[in-house]
Amino acid sequence: MKFDRKPRIGLLLIGAKRFKPLGEGTARGNYEQRKAIEAESYMKKFAEFADVVFDGPVYEREEAEAAARKFYADKVDCAVAIFMSWAEDFAWIHFLRELPLSVPLFFASVVRDSLSITDTNDEDQFVDFLSAGALVGFQEASGSFRRFNRPMTDICIGTLDEVCAKLKVFAAACKARSVLRETKISLLSCYNEAMWATYLDPYNIFMKIGPEIHFLSIMELVNEINATDDALVSKMSKELCEKYRVYPNVDYAKLDASVKATYAMEQIAMREGTDLLVLNDIDTVLFANVGLRPGFAPTRADLPMVTVPEGDIGGGLATYILQMLSGRNANFIEPFYIDHKRGVIVAGHAGPNNYRDPDGKCIIARDERFAKSGWKYAGAPFAWYVFPTGLKTMLHMSEKNGRMKMVCTLVECIPTEHYLASYSHADFKPANGMTPEELFQKICENGVTQHYGIAPGDVTAELEALAGLMDFEFVCIK
Known about the structure:
The chain is α/β, with parallel strands linked by helices. It folds into two domains: 8-181, Rossmann fold; 183-477, L-fucose Isomerase, Chain A, domain 3, CATH 3.20.14. The chain has helices spanning 31-46, 61-73, 90-98, 123-131, 134-148, 160-182, 202-209, 218-227, 230-243, 252-271, 284-290, 313-326, 436-445, 460-470; strands spanning 8-14, 51-53, 78-83, 105-111, 153-159, 184-188, 212-216, 245-246, 276-279, 306-308, 331-339, 344-349, 361-365, 382-386, 390-400, 403-414, 424-430, 452-456, 473-477. Helix 3 packs parallel to helix 5 and helix 8 (218-227) packs parallel to helix 11.
């Protein structure tokens, strides 16, 4: 995965050329010196959550054009433009014209926390009065900002803390957009033929979102399994058994087979540069040739790849995006049923699910769903996981008339013990005060499938910003 980094922002600070020398020799220095100090404060604040590309305040049209070229060349996730006072608008208009439309733009005005202007007959205070006039520049610049009608923009006026709060969300969404344009998805080996509603158009995904899709074959997996060193598999199995409780009915030969198949699956995906692996784990070709569904993805905690089941690329994208925005392990679920008496939603999923969050609970258990089947490794063990407690963002993604759709909400994962054999799971409550019935009435009114990603915390604002950048249909149920 390429998303373990801060957002990259290009910072454009526009000052007034004709004000530069004013205030020379005063207590706080001239206008240009004051703006250099102000710029440093912005840099320091933005650097708390972003990598900032910045060469100093801009006063000339040539400097603005150079900044636009640099931002594009340095592949910033977004540009941030701030008028530091009133300023001539030629630099701004040149920047708007030269900045490629593919670069998102955040336009802001920073309001000082306090002012002490009492008598502008004093030159020091007069220059401070001119320096504090960012609202004038913001208003003037807003006309051209709208006349250029750029896509992928946002606008904000407020204190530095308020601007940073909104910019942090926008920049995170812009980073997600950039990462998606570099992402590789691998599908092993096909869509789920039992669930047509989960199908997505691969060309649309590439054109409108960014990821390219590789199709891996079961024979690739079989060949990799056969080439995998048994000693390495034994070592991985031993480490798993030392780390997690093992049910007494686990067949250790089948445990090795499951670990081996999982490792081999990850190896063929990693060779393709895969960031998101979508496994159709109920494919009969997989069972006939491999004899099980791989049950221990990821085989190591730092594996740079998200793996999801059931051939659902939309569900995979939801999980992948949530992991990127939250910075925490995300999981793939389908809500199974509503326990009306308890007011809870019971949800989870069979097949691969990231089980390595230390706040969750994992047991190595037999796959009871297939224990009595005729496949070679019937009942092969898997990582049986209960999701960590706490607030979660729950996101659905699917395609509607060629346009991607996001439907999200917040749920509370409540303390749960292992009780649904063969399914990683937990019990959930709506976090918005609705009953489960009311929540799913609203969700299903928007048309969804049964698959969602969940991740810790509330990233609904970031999801809304990303949907706006990507022209997704977006619904947040609060």
